[in-house]
């Protein structure tokens, strides 16, 4: 559920350096602010105070807040129940008391976070309006070789709603070979499964 990137590991180390009670306060503040809109969780003044209180640099505080948001968003994305969430957190290198703090805050706020994130889905200014497609089969020219190269061509009609007074439609044409189309289909299946878990 969680990656093992260098940045994530740095964030975990910073989380581990925070006292359990103080961490619980940060987690509680962060989780109520998660709504998919990427708004500031703390004001600049509050961030300065937090950095001083926890003896962190500004960049370390941003890393801390970023990793906390990321952890909760990943949990929501996977619709993780509290037991699964704690189990996955234990694999990240978080300390036992930090895992407990995350688990408590997650179990109390899980339904609300998932609901807010579900409601924020689809707020993009670009939406798919229609799809046209056609299948092409290229036959070989040589009578001795019976090669067939099937390709599919998709035309995505995308509504651009960045200007509320004028909706423009842009067209995007994509050609897929058989293997590419299959990989695209598998990606769509994954997306559909993840959307289904949010219902």
Give an overview in words.
It is a single chain. A hairpin with an 8-residue loop joins strand 1 and strand 2 (148-163). Helix 2 crosses helix 4, helix 2 (20-33) runs parallel beside helix 6 and helix 5 (82-90) packs across helix 6. Strands 1-2-3 form a 3-stranded antiparallel sheet. It has helices at residues 6-16, 20-33, 44-53, 58-77, 82-90, 96-120, 178-197, and strands spanning 126-139, 148-163, 166-177. The chain has 199 residues and is an alpha+beta fold. It starts with 5 loop residues before the first helix and ends with a helix. The chain contains 7 helices and 3 strands, in the order H-H-H-H-H-H-E-E-E-H.
Brief digest:
This protein has seven helices and three strands; from the N terminus they run H-H-H-H-H-H-E-E-E-H. It is an alpha+beta fold.
Number of helices: 7
Strand order of the largest sheet: 1-2-3
**Main sheet overview:** 3 strands, antiparallel
Average pLDDT figure: 85
Helical proportion, percent range: 40-55%
- What structural class should be given to the helix and strand makeup? alpha+beta
Number of DSSP strand runs = 3
From the structure above, extract its key features:
199 residues; alpha+beta
């Amino acid at each position: 559920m969680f990656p093992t990137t260098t940045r994530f590991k740095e964030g975990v180390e910073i989380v581990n350096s925070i006292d359990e009670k103080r961490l619980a306060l940060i987690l509680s503040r962060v989780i109520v602010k998660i709504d998919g809109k990427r708004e500031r969780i703390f004001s600049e003044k509050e961030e300065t105070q937090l950095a001083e209180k926890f003896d962190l640099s500004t960049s370390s505080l941003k890393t801390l807040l970023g990793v906390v948001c990321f952890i909760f968003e990943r949990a929501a994305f996977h619709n993780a129940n509290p037991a699964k969430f704690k189990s996955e957190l234990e694999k990240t290198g978080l300390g036992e008391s930090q895992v407990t703090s995350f688990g408590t805050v997650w179990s109390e706020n899980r339904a609300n976070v998932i609901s807010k994130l579900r409601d924020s889905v689809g707020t993009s200014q670009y939406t798919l309006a229609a799809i046209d497609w056609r299948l092409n089969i290229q036959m070989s020219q040589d009578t001795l070789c019976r090669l067939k190269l099937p390709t599919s061509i998709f035309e995505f009609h995308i509504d651009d709603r960045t200007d509320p007074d004028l909706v423009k439609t842009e067209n995007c044409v994509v050609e897929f070979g058989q293997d590419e189309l299959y990989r695209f289909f598998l990606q769509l299946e994954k997306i559909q499964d993840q959307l289904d878990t949010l219902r």
